[in-house]
Write a structure and sequence with these properties.
By secondary structure, the chain is of the alpha/beta class. It has three domains: 190 residues, 3-Layer(aba) Sandwich (D-Maltodextrin-Binding Protein, domain 2), CATH 3.40.190.10; 166 residues, D-Maltodextrin-Binding Protein, domain 2; 54 residues. Helices cover 40% and strands 15% of the residues. Helix 18 packs antiparallel against helix 19. The longest helix has 27 residues. It is globular, with a radius of gyration of 23 Å. The chain starts with 9 loop residues before the first helix and ends with a helix.
Length: 512
Amino acid sequence: MKRKLVSIPLSVMLVSSVLLAACGGDKSASTAPAASTAASAAPKATEADSKPTPITIMSPLNTAQSPPDVIVKELEKMTNTKLTFQFFPADTYEEKLNTTLATGALPQVTYLKNQATFIQMKSAIRDGQFWEIGPYLKDFPNLSKLKSTTNDNTKVDGKLYSLYRGVDIARQGLIYRKDWADKLGLKAPTNTQELYEMAKAFAEKDPDGNGKKDTIGLADRNDLIYGAFKTVDNWLGVPNNWGEKDGKLQPEFMFPEYVASMDYFKKLRDEGLINKDFAATSKTDQIKLFTSGTAGMYIGAMTDVASLNKDLIKNVPSAVVDVHSMVAGPSGKFSSWALGGYNNVVLFPKSAIKTEADLKKILAFFDKEMSPEVANMMFWGIKDVHYSVTDNKAKKLDEDKWTREVKPFADAAIGDEDTTGRYLGIPSIPAAGKADQLKIENLKYAVQDPTAALDSKTNMEKGVQLQALITDATYKYIYGNLDKAGFDKAVEDWKSRGGSKIIDEYNAVYKK
């Protein structure tokens, strides 16, 4: 079978994980099989299949180094498997994924990085390189619990090829230095003007009290989606990727609010309120700007607040963080950019899985993984080693130990809290508990992408290259290297090179 090379260029590499990515080594965790029975949720093994099932798994690594095999050994005992995890740094994962796909060397279980990477992989899916798994889910009691709406958002041409890693739908918001805000007499911003004023004060009014102008308001990165831009542009009234205008679906950058968002970020950059090289800043370096005490604001997943705080107080022990999400735009209305119920998916390459019987064995592993016992091991680790339980909720005993030994596996846990039955967590700091509340309140104002479950043939063929035009034009506009007329020309180029066909194709299926 001829394999299509899925090109993942700059425009897609700018899309980072909603997770805290750090540069780690190209190491893999591999352990010997453990002689034990499978988890209680697994079907009873016959003599023919009692041998541990060998499974190799490729996954992005969001910690500084690959984990030890502590959790792997326990998972092997509980699922009757021999697991080999191949972890690769999340910052460069798309490149590794692209190379491995091109050489036909993908392992049996291949995680992508995020929604954008999944979209780019659809051409290879259509090319028949991955197993369709939808028809098999009904045969597995736990896999059949996966949410149908999320499954629908991950289908390709109406067929399901992937298992999803669930995500909070409306988790976006502001993480900020409350100690700085209190010192300067600032409250949590209720609108985008007050958000700007907080950024300006944090940059210009010496919030750390050292007598030097060495702080900035907002730390951002080279990512127009999972960085600050998309969350803020939604606050400013931009739709989620696509929106309805003049009676039909149109892309977000054809709305006047998108230009207003570029103007907003241009003002932040021109005035030195954001790191000026943000378009070339990795997520790792963005995080360092906040945790080193240089920046006072971080816009993204509010659920990252505990890990950000952990590293921040190592450098600034007196620091206090808080979270906020209800920021209104000029219209006075609240809105919250919503994800499609997943932040990553796992695919099953036919090049590595030769038979239906082998596929079913691997799906059986994931079915066991969704049982409460195995899900807790995957997400929380070993009880009384990595976490304790109080009132049927889990609390990490040592954040650093959990991050080092458990987080890479938690980042690969499929399903959701409610579909797996794993423990809910006890917040480690008050701000984390507040984030849990706000992500629920945000649901009332969640703005969904109307094209999430739609397909456009032209978008599959040309979408990456066309989006690169808009991404580059957006950065050039914010940096002052392109004016409004230049941006409008980029939009016209997008339309003439295939964008108009994408609009037509989406609207043709949207109206049905």
